Structures are given as structure tokens and as C-alpha cells.
């Protein structure tokens, strides 16, 4: 082995070793609680994306750090202050913390946008609900519950919007794709985790859900016009769909986990 190769391997080993070592944080910050909140507030406003606590911890030097607990307390205080005194709110979703307009004022903010808010077809909502509550699930299983074919455009649209993704394939003939929701799905619907999904008993009225999901911020292009197959299910009873999801969810709790091939 040449000297240069040995040196490169040594440097790579040292780099990997440093990555494996936990950060040595010395909690010895002279920041006041108010100043700490201002720093976190400024970071969240300027980031343009959600930030996790671990990312916020990177804002401070290791030898003079406020500590994770102090940052968590500052975030909690900011949430309370904005909820009480502002039209904005500090919301924790799956991918971290972010500032957003409170629901009470979203209709006013929507007037700033020329594009109409997105509305979602019954077929889209039913498909998304089945994936959310029964994941992982195949397209054929969705079609079995709904009783009609699932448009490829619906699946494609939800993947493009980062609401669902393929997490593997079921080990059966044809190896159909298994669909699951994403962090993007949780973020869009203001959820921290899937445990915050509403109870199935609250999802009886699909049309009411469609009205509630007439979100104004952010604006997302409307779903393409439904195909004939999708239009054929307009008269499907939403109570029957929800009841079927209930049965499947109950069955899934007693069944063994599906084998997934990555």
C-alpha cells in the first residue's frame, strides 16, 4: 500500500470516528431566556422550512450552550405567547417546528393569492384515508374496499405532492407496490404523528371533510378532473366506506404484519 493511500485511509477513519462520537456540549450560556427566545424566533422565521430541536441546537457553540431543555422551554413559551397575542402560531409538525398563519385568519390571507384553493375529489379523499389508516396497503386492496378502480393519476398526484410513497412490495405474485404516508402528509395536515389522525368515527361525512380541506395556505394546484371510473363512485355511501375501513383496521390489528421486500 502506498503512503498516499495509507494517509487517505487514515483520514477517512478519523472522519468516520469523529462522526460517531457524540457532541460534547458544555451548558454554560450567559443568554437570558428572552434573548434565547429571540434567537430561536429569528431562526425559525429565516429558515424557510421546519426546524427540529437538534437543528436549533446547532446554532450555539458547544462550549457555551443553553442546552436542549432550555431550547425546548423557549419553544414552549413562544408557542404560548404567539397563541395569545398573534395571528401566527408556532406549530410542531412531523418534520419540526414552523410559524404559520392561524386557521382563524387563513381566509383573509387567501385573498392575497389569485389561484383558487385546492379542492379534492371524493375518490382522492377516500384513497388517501385508506392509505393513512391501513398503511402499508396496495392499490388492489384500496380498490377492493372502494369497489372501483383507483386512477393512476390520483396515485401519481399524491406521490408528487409528497403525501404518499412506495415503501416496498408485497410478497405475492406481481409484487404490487405498498403505499404509506410521508412526513410531507403529516406536515401538510398539521400533524405531528399518525396518532393525531382523527378517529374513524369522525370521518363519516366525506363532503364535509372536503369542505374542511379547502385549505388556503399553501396554495396547491387542483387535482385533475376525475375519470369516468372515478365519477362512477359518486353515489357510494360514505358511511359504508368508513365502516369498511373500521373493519379492515380491526382485522389488521389481529393479522400478522405483511412481508415487505425492499
Using the coordinates shown, work out and report the CATH topology of the largest domain.
Arc Repressor Mutant, subunit A
**What share of the residues lie within helices?**
40-55%
In total, the number of domains comes to: 2
Number of distinct helices: 12
Residue share in β-strands: 5-15%
- Assign the CATH superfamily of the largest domain: Winged helix-like DNA-binding domain superfamily/Winged helix DNA-binding domain
Lateral strand order in the biggest sheet: 4-3-5
Taking the alpha carbons of the first and last residues, their distance comes to 37 Å
Number of strands: 5
Please give the largest β-sheet.
3 strands, antiparallel
Shape: globular
Order of helix and strand elements from N to C terminus: HHHHEEHHHHEEHHHHE
Q: What average pLDDT do the residues reach? A: 75
Structural class: mainly alpha
Which residue ranges are poorly predicted, with pLDDT under 50 across at least 5 consecutive positions?
213-241, 248-262
CATH-defined architecture of the largest domain:
Orthogonal Bundle
> What's the quaternary structure here?
single chain
Amino acid at each position: 500500500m502506498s503512503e498516499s493511500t495509507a494517509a487517505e485511509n487514515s483520514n477517512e477513519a478519523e472522519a468516520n470516528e469523529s462522526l460517531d462520537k457524540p457532541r460534547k456540549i458544555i451548558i454554560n450560556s450567559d443568554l437570558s431566556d428572552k434573548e434565547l427566545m429571540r434567537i430561536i424566533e429569528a431562526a425559525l422565521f429565516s429558515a424557510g422550512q421546519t426546524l427540529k430541536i437538534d437543528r436549533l441546537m446547532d446554532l450555539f457553540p458547544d462550549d457555551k450552550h443553553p442546552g436542549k431543555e432550555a431550547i425546548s422551554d423557549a419553544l414552549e413559551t413562544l408557542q404560548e405567547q404567539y397563541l395569545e397575542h398573534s395571528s401566527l402560531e408556532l406549530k410542531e409538525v412531523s418534520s419540526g417546528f414552523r410559524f404559520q398563519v392561524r386557521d382563524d385568519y387563513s381566509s383573509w390571507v387567501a385573498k392575497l393569492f389569485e389561484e383558487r384553493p385546492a379542492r379534492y375529489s371524493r375518490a382522492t379523499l377516500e384513497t388517501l384515508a385508506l392509505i393513512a389508516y391501513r398503511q402499508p396497503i396496495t392499490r388492489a386492496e384500496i380498490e377492493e374496499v372502494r369497489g372501483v378502480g383507483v386512477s393512476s393519476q390520483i396515485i401519481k398526484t399524491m406521490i408528487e405532492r409528497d403525501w404518499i410513497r412506495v415503501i416496498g412490495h408485497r410478497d405475492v405474485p406481481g409484487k404490487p407496490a405498498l403505499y404509506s404516508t410521508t412526513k410531507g402528509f403529516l406536515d401538510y395536515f398539521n400533524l405531528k404523528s399518525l396518532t393525531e389522525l382523527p378517529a374513524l368515527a369522525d370521518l363519516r361525512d366525506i363532503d364535509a371533510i372536503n369542505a374542511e380541506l379547502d385549505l388556503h395556505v399553501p396554495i396547491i394546484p387542483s387535482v385533475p378532473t376525475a375519470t369516468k371510473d372515478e365519477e362512477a363512485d359518486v353515489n357510494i355511501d360514505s358511511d359504508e366506506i368508513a365502516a369498511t375501513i373500521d373493519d379492515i383496521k380491526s382485522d389488521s390489528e389481529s393479522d400478522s404484519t405483511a412481508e415487505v421486500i425492499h
